[in-house]
Every structure is written in structure tokens, then in C-alpha cells.
Predict the structure.
Amino acid sequence: MKIVICNSYDEMSMLGAKVIAGQILTKSNSVIGLATGSTPLGLYKNLIKMNKDGLLDFTDVTTFNLDEYYPIDPKDKNSYRRFMDENLFNHINIKKENAHVLNGAAQDYEKECEEYDNNIRAHGGIDVMLLGIGRNGHIGFNEPNESLVSATHRQILTENTRDANSRFFSGIDEVPKAALTMGMGTIIKESKKIILLASGKDKHEAVKGLVSGNITSNDPASYLNLHKDVTLFLDKEAFNG
Ligand code: F6R
């Protein structure tokens, strides 16, 4: 695992964006894995700027997002599909049909998850997977547990997670009870390269768990130690605490 310590959130966002841009410049039909949350917003702004400046072309790029609430209407203002449209896809020249987000309105969630994994495999896997990390070490919606599900699956959300995410909704009752998420197995097996961004003091404990090298289902991020090409981009606060 490589660790890059960045002077600021902006530097972290630029270095992360350069990895993705470099991948797309090397292979125009790259497959990129994407995350939601506050952490990648700066990186997305950089990708948008590179695209607007004519330096980066998304015409042949395919993306697969990590997770989505379930059930949720993709048009809901809190859906991760909306988040991605508003913060990236609407501002770059990606073809909407190539920008995949798990369908929160799918009737049959098992079929949706199985087809998502099949689709990733049919594209030859993910060239660069972008991740954030939760304060408790969660990745996507893979929460600390006695055991983890390897494939893309439905995850019932803990009250803690629903409570933490309720700030975006009108109240906790509005927060969906579950989510669909790539499993740690999908992330590790299907990604050729993984970059994880973490910023701020409150991510320090999670980063510490990850770099300790101990692999446990109580710390889903620790599974990234099983992958041979992971780079962490950390600001000083996330690294030092
Ligand atoms: C979202 C996701 C989550 C976030 C994590 C950190 O797609 O995968 O696991 O990466 O909750 O969120 P932020 O970046 O808001 O601190």
C-alpha cells in the first residue's frame, strides 16, 4: 500500500484527479469506479475543469458507482444517482448510458446486484476505483460486522448510519432502511488499481486501522490490504490525527 501525504484538501483532490485523468489519457475507454460523499467533490471539480478546458475526454469512458440507497427513486434529491448527476455527470461529456449507478428503484434487488457485478466483469473490470472511507472504516455501505458479503448486495443500514445520514433528509424516518453496495470482494477482485482519499482529523482512526495491516470484518477498509495496488491520498490531518 502506498501512502501520499498531501499538504491540503486541494492538493489531495488534484493528485487524485491526476490519477484518473492519467488513466483516461492512456486508455480512452477506461472503466472508472466512483464514490459519493464530501471527500471526492474537489476531485470531481478538477475533472470537470479538465474536461471543460479540453484536456480530458469522457466520450468513451464507463463509470460504475459504489452504492445507492434502497429503495429510492433515482430522481429523489437524496439519491446517489442525483448526487453524481449534479456533481459530475451533468458537467462532463460522458454518455449517460455509460455512467452506471445501482438502481435504487429496482423491483428485484438481487437481480440488480448480480447484473451489476456481471456488467463490471463484462467491461473487463475497473481500471481505477476511487474510494472514500467512513469514520468507522466503512467502504461504500459495507459496515463493520461479524462477517461481510463479498459480492454486490443489499445492506440493511444500522440506526447509526441512518442517523448520520439523516442530516441530508427531512428526518430519520425519511432515510431509506437499506442500500445496495458493491461488496468488498467485488471491489478487490474487479479493480486493477484503487485510490482512497481521506481528509480531516475525524478520518484518522479509520486510516490508522487501515494501515495497521490487520484484516478484520469489523473494519471493512482493512480488506484493502489484500489488494496489490492501493494508494492512499491523505491530508496531514487524516494522517497525523
Ligand atoms: C459513498 C461511500 C461512502 C463514503 C464515506 C465517506 O459512495 O462510498 O463509503 O465514501 O461515507 O464519506 P465522506 O466523504 O462524506 O466523508
User: Anything to note?
Assistant: Strands lie at 2-6, 31-34, 62-65, 67-70, 99-100, 126-131, 153-156, 178-181, 191-198, 230-235. The CA atoms of residues 2 and 70 lie 34 Å apart. DSSP finds eight helices and ten strands in the chain. The pocket of fructose -6-phosphate is lined by residues 35-39, 66-67, 132-134, 138-140 (CB under 6 Å).
